[in-house]
Amino acid sequence: MEKTKLVIGHFYPDLLNLYGDRGNVLALYRRAALRGIDVTIEQITIGTKLDADETDISFLGGGQDSEQNIMKDDLVHDKGQTVRDMIENGKVFLCICGGYQMLGKYYKEHTGETLECLGALDLYTEADKVRFINDTVYEFEKDDGSKATIVGFENHSGRTYLGEGIKPFMKVIKGHGNNGTDGWEGAVYKNTFCTYSHGSLLPKNPEITDMLIERAMKNRYGSDYVLPPLDDSGEQAAKKAALDYIKNGKEQMI
Amino acid sequence: MIKTSIACLAARTVRAALRMMGKGATTLPGKIALKIDPDIISRKAEGKNIITVTGTNGKTTTAHMISDMISSMGINVINNISGANLQTGVATTLVCEKGRGDDMYVLEVDEAAFAKIAESLGPKVCVVTNLFRDQLDRYGELTHTRDLIASGIAKTGAKVILNADDSLVASIGDGIEDRCVFFGMDKVSMKENNEKYPPRKGVIPASPDAVFCPVCKVRYEYRAHSFGHLGDFYCPSCGFKSPDSRFEVIYDLGTSPSNDDYEYKIRDSLSGTTVDMKQKVPGTHNLYNTCAAISAVTVFTEALKGREGDADLFRSSCASQDHVSAAFGRMEKIDIDGKKLCIFLVKNPIGLDRALTFIADSNDKASLMMLLSSNFADGKDVSWIWDVDFESKAEDLPSNIAVSGQRYADMKLRLEYAGAKVGRSGPNDKAIDILRELIDECPQGGCVYVLPTYTAMLSLRAGLVRELGLKEFWK
């Protein structure tokens, strides 16, 4: 059998690179490569070309405000139509924090000023003065209907609200989620997954890593493609320890 | 002022009581003094010779070097060497440390605290080491940290020692050119080293800082790199570039600065003097810290004697480097019956990157222990370990690796994702047992490298004091 391939598009790695979100790219790379898939990581940034057909999984993280201001034009205007088409055509996206907010329609600042976003997903974000900074636990429903516990860390002052046709990604067990009120975290539209969760998200949550890889491989090789099984005991052990720390860990006085 | 006297008395009494209880008491006395007399810092700092050191990385090491160097010249030095570098720690040092009257104060100051107290301190010399991402949830954006430092400096008349290779730090010199002195790597050496010894490459590059010119929003170009975003940069739009340094490190990475007695040179372009050096505190990043310390001591002694550009003063600064030792938990090598224990505090991505590079390059590595905790002082979010490029160094790390700390499992997974194998692992209460086993297994002349986050270091250190009879860190 011919070797299968997977191309990961790492968007703006020089600008959107906060809170260890590059760990998500490393996780996708590792769990695909260990299955014998030939993985390539393309760095897509200001001035570089975006090859929609050849990009299987796109990753957008969050950045500092000043750095998001530098790349926003490139995403919203230069690459905007291509990205919107990719999302509509069912390409796989994972967007975290700032990347999540930028896919929506707009971001409204404390000052009332409204920043134009990509408008690929029917959702919007409003800034609030109180920042949510804490460990998080979510419940995620896998493609086979079974449930997985997901562990992460949130750090955001934006409150995100989902429009028609946009489903939440996960149910909040611990933490604030999209807006601190409705009990949901993140957004899903077709094969685009958005969340506020850092951690990094994917390394300790291989259920999501594998789902993203499988969906991308089905896009490339047809719906019959089945992702080969791969041990995840190391990841599950890290998740279990993190959950235990969140439940029982205390600030240690020294 | 009666208020000041009461504040000092209260602080000293509290400190004496806490010391009797075996506590370091590096911040509480200052906190009390500030409460009683909010102007205590300016009152106590008035008329004193003060050097401040700020920046995200290398503060403690650089301040420690400057202290050792100035002490060796026969001047009494008072410092906050325990690393208590907020207003409270600085106030504790100013109030509680008894001097001789002609003392020199060397104070490391947190970046945000610096903006608040620079004016009160009225330092003669301010050193800014570098600016790297550091617990962004606590400090905010790097450009903001840069602005804080610049605002503090603007309220002093100090000579300012700036890292020429760091675009964020170098830009602090805008508008104060007459009192700025730059230090950095010699630009020719940097380029030659890049060509001769290309750096290791990982799966994807580490998350970089300060990639774009904040004024033009154009990507900086580099003629040469040292590490992180440090290098010979320029903005192709506005032309802002790495300034020519007065003090420069001339080096060759043919042998590794990770090893003892690494040989290099430092040049003072003002006096046209070059001095041969042997590195006292190893590591490429410590070439910067050493150069910063020599710059500060030279500039300070020049101001003291009114002899700017005097080659003899530069030479004696360089010579005083012989008296330098590593600071607490900063590459401090402890001898244990012919085996070495080296503790290296890691608190942010670039610090961890430098530590891993250092260990990968060292020729005495026997084992590695990493301790990750998430108390407030460490940062509650452990995501930052994923910003570090472990992948490029994993092959060269020791094969015997252990993990501990509150979040040991996160660190274990991080190492495993980079392809490293982790042996022993367990939470904080296992740390001392694991370390004892690593020391037992270590061959003679070998080194056990320990990389803890801040609170993991303090608790490990407390264990070592009990087990190995090491001295308390505030002594």
Please supply descriptive tags for the structure shown above.
heterodimer, A: 254 residues, alpha/beta, Rossmann fold, six-stranded mixed sheet, globular, B: 475 residues, UDP-N-acetylmuramoyl-L-alanine:D-glutamate ligase, Protein-Tyrosine Phosphatase, Chain A, 2 domains, nine-stranded mixed sheet, five-stranded mixed sheet, 16 helices, 38% helix
Which residues of chain B form runs of ≥5 with pLDDT under 50?
none
Name the CATH architecture of chain A.
3-Layer(aba) Sandwich
Strands of the widest sheet of chain B, in order across it, are 2-3-1-4-5-6-9-10-11
State the secondary-structure class of chain B.
alpha/beta
Distance between the termini of chain A: 58 Å
User: Biggest sheet of chain B: strands, sense, closure?
Assistant: 9 strands, mixed
Helix content of chain A: 25-40%
Which class best fits the helix and strand makeup of chain A?
Answer: alpha/beta
Number of beta-strand segments of chain A: 12
Helix content of chain B: 25-40%
Multimerization status:
heterodimer
Instruction: Write the H/E string of chain A, N to C.
Output: EHEEHHEHEEEEEEEEHHH
The whole-angstrom Rg of chain A is 18 Å
Fraction in beta strands of chain A:
25-35%
